[in-house]
Structure formats: structure tokens, C-alpha cells
Predict the 3D structure of the following.
Amino acid sequence: MSEYVTVREARAHLAEVVDKAEAGEVTVLTRKGKRVAALVPIEVLDALDEASDELAAREAEQHRDDPTVSMIELLADLFEADGGKGEGDPVNTPSASPAS
């Protein structure tokens, strides 16, 4: 079961909260009564990262044979979608020129 502490309490007792994580405990941090973060054992984070990577790999594998588009086609679609304004286009953004 997770222990709930406020961010203020966690800050004041950070070494203790870290010790608990090293011992395998999860501490949920709250702010104004809402859960905002969790301090977890590093093994839990590693397992989450590994699971996320595996899920992404499976998703990619499912779409391996899907049709692809070139970067030019992708950019053309993006600029067509914004009405040709070129918003967010780093190529057409004026570069900062030195003051004269």
C-alpha cells in the first residue's frame, strides 16, 4: 500500500522518503489534496520503461507493412492543413539578423 505525503512533508523529510523507496515502498506526493507525483523504487521505474518500450515495439511491428509516405508528402500535407501559412515552418521562418 502506498503512503501519501504532501510535497512540503516530502521536502522536509526527503532522505526518509528516499530510504523508503530504496526499501521497496511507494510514496505518493500530494498538493492541495491531489496526487501530483510518486517516488517509487528504481526497479519499478525500470520495469515501467521496459514495458513501455515493449509496447511501442509491438505497436510498430503491427504496422510494419502499412503504407508509408515520404517526408516531402508529409510536409506538403502539414502545410496544406495550415492553409499554406507556413506556421511553424522552420525553413520559412526569418532568421535573426544582426542589428545594423
In short: The chain has a mean pLDDT of 87. The CA atoms of residues 12 and 40 lie 18 Å apart.
